[in-house]
Amino acid sequence: MNTTVNLAGVELKNPVMTASGTFGSGEEYSEFVDLNRLGAVVTKGVANVPWPGNPTPRIAETYGGMMNAIGLQNPGIDVFCERDIPFLKKYDTKIIVNVCGKTTEDYCEVVERLADEPVDLLEINISCPNVKEGGIAFGQNPKAVEDITKEIKKYAKQPVIMKLSPNVTDITETAKAAEAGGADVLSLINTLTGMKIDINRQTFALANKTGGVSGPAVKPIAVRMVYQVANAVKLPIIGMGGISTYEDAIEFILAGATAVSVGTANFFNPAATVEVVEGIEKYMERYHFENIKDMVGLVK
Amino acid sequence: MSNKRKESAMIVSQECIAADIYSMWIQTEKIASLAVPGQFISMYTKDGSKLLPRPISLCEINREKKLIRVVYRVTGEGTGTEQFSELTKGDWIDILGPLGNGFPLEAAKGKKAMLIGGGIGVPPMLELAKQLDTKKVLVMGYRDEQFLAEEFCEYGDFYVATEDGSAGTKGNVMDAIAANGLDAEVIFACGPAPMLRAIKQYAEEKNIVCYISTEERMACGIGACLACVCQSKEVDGHSHVHNKRVCKDGPVFLSTEVEI
């Protein structure tokens, strides 16, 4: 059985990775799962300088999911390169660094700094709904997506994944724009902007007022968007949005995703990633798939 | 890779000990053998609509019998805590722990300690009272109905404050401390933020070393998601800003270290 997948020339032992922001840089979860079993670890977003993030409360539970507005708290690229990359290098898994910024220059600074680091792919977060500048400001306008992708490609030594926002009318437009800008891979979906009101305190549940909704409740939307994008562009897709089990992961693969990310599920099942890896293998056995590539986009 | 994992554990007993306050004993060799006072566990519902763990502090740890006790408040109809309260002896519950740092017992060595609990911050003070081998006063504040009071009496001089004046000093824990002329060389406290704020101020004015157990909304419970941060004076070890993680760096902090 062959579970290896290829993302822009980088071969992953299996298609399962972590969704940025839910897994830190792997250290905390390494006490629960063997990181060597994962196709890749996608780190929490890192910027050129440390970001303090948003005020608390930063999270709220929603029906079948959750909402967060962490605000991309991160230690900045210097600490990240000194501490997080060497930690991940101890494992036999691919390293994908999620990059965030407030301006195009911020993104490019981080990308340039990572050029000589032992990092396999870069994921560019142009879709975080929880920061005022940068983030989603880039991700909702096809022209802006194309421009920033082009700019980042000038500095990037590793293949570039553009992470798309679902908070748009037609996600195939931003997907095509990223492709036109030279993106190597697309990942989707980031969280859906939502709001929760605490009726006992008569205020917003999150200090940020709005937050990104994730978890099983958003999965059908994510599967639909992966299917649409897979039929609109030629790039490989990393699918995510509510994946908690191998069955969820298979849906995304059949819809057109080459790889998948497990996010919110880590919070209620710290072993979710490895369980998805094992489940995919069993599924392939049961349905006699010799090569996982034969499953990608099988449902037309 | 260590052997940390979410486990399914059997409930040994469950009873309602006051209005909306439940006491549950859980069989778990691993957590009982590792836990220290002030640590907490993540408790999971079986309800797919309520996915996030509920962080609940440990009230008692029985190493010999491999049991832990949680005393928690049911926060309303249809809540996860209400679902926990419906479980009975022989049922299984998914838990993860022990989590967090716990109270530093060594800080009280040879010193007169004051343990202060308020509301649902009362339960974690019980195991601390049991394990602290030093002279201590115990000050617990309740809205109205007392719980665990008799159990506290075994471990030190016990003082009560009730908001409705039904027992002890009418008012809050600070009123009980003043009314009884209590003092100490080290304070350990757990309770609602306004109470912790008042204790922090009191301790700093009197120059008393004070440890407070804080609370914040959590998702992962293990330090990865950065949801449950509190503002710290020092630069934190994780993000190098001023945001310590309540679930991992805390929940117990030196009062002078954090803004609450």
Summarize this entry quickly:
Helix content of chain A is 31%, strand content 20%. Chain A is an alpha/beta fold and 300 residues long.
Architecture overview:
The complex is a heterodimer of chains A (300) and B (260). Chain A has helices spanning 76-89, 104-113, 136-139, 142-155, 171-180, 219-230, 246-255, 265-268, 272-286; strands at 5-7, 10-12, 16-18, 40-42, 59-62, 65-68, 94-99, 121-125, 160-163, 185-188, 192-195, 197-198, 203-204, 210-214, 237-239, 259-262. Chain A has 300 residues and is an alpha/beta fold. Chain A has a single domain (5-295), classed as Aldolase class I (TIM Barrel). In chain A, helix 5 (171-180) links the parallel strand 9 (160-163) and strand 10 (185-188). The model of chain A has no long low-confidence stretch (mean pLDDT 96). With 260 residues, chain B is α/β, with parallel strands linked by helices. The model of chain B has no long low-confidence stretch (mean pLDDT 95). The interface between A and B is large, with 43 and 35 residues.
Search tags:
heterodimer, A: alpha/beta, TIM Barrel, 8-stranded parallel β-sheet, 4-stranded antiparallel β-sheet, 9 helices, 31% helix, B: 260 residues, alpha/beta, Rossmann fold, Dihydroorotate dehydrogenase B (pyrk subunit), domain 3, 3 domains, 7-stranded mixed β-sheet, 6-stranded antiparallel beta barrel, 34% strand
* Biggest interface pair, counts: A-B, 43 and 35 residues
Helix and strand run of chain A: EEEEEEHEHEHHEHEEEEEHEHEHH
CATH topology name of the largest domain in chain B:
Elongation Factor Tu (Ef-tu), domain 3
How many structural domains can be distinguished in the coordinates of chain A?
A: 1
Low-confidence stretches of chain A: none
Mean pLDDT of chain A: 96
Strand content of chain B: 25-35%
Secondary structure layout plus pairing:
The complex is a heterodimer of chains A (300) and B (260).
Chain A: E1 5-7, E2 10-12, E3 16-18, E4 40-42, E5 59-62, E6 65-68, H1 76-89, E7 94-99, H2 104-113, E8 121-125, H3 136-139, H4 142-155, E9 160-163, H5 171-180, E10 185-188, E11 192-195, E12 197-198, E13 203-204, E14 210-214, H6 219-230, E15 237-239, H7 246-255, E16 259-262, H8 265-268, H9 272-286
Parallel strand pairs in A: 3-16, 4-7, 7-8, 8-9, 9-10, 10-15, 15-16
Antiparallel strand pairs in A: 1-2, 5-6, 6-14, 11-14, 12-13
Chain B: E1 7-18, E2 21-27, H1 29-34, E3 40-44, E4 54-62, E5 67-73, H2 80-85, E6 92-99, E7 113-118, H3 123-131, E8 136-142, H4 149-153, E9 157-162, E10 169-170, H5 173-179, E11 186-190, H6 193-205, E12 209-213, E13 229-231, E14 243-245, E15 252-254
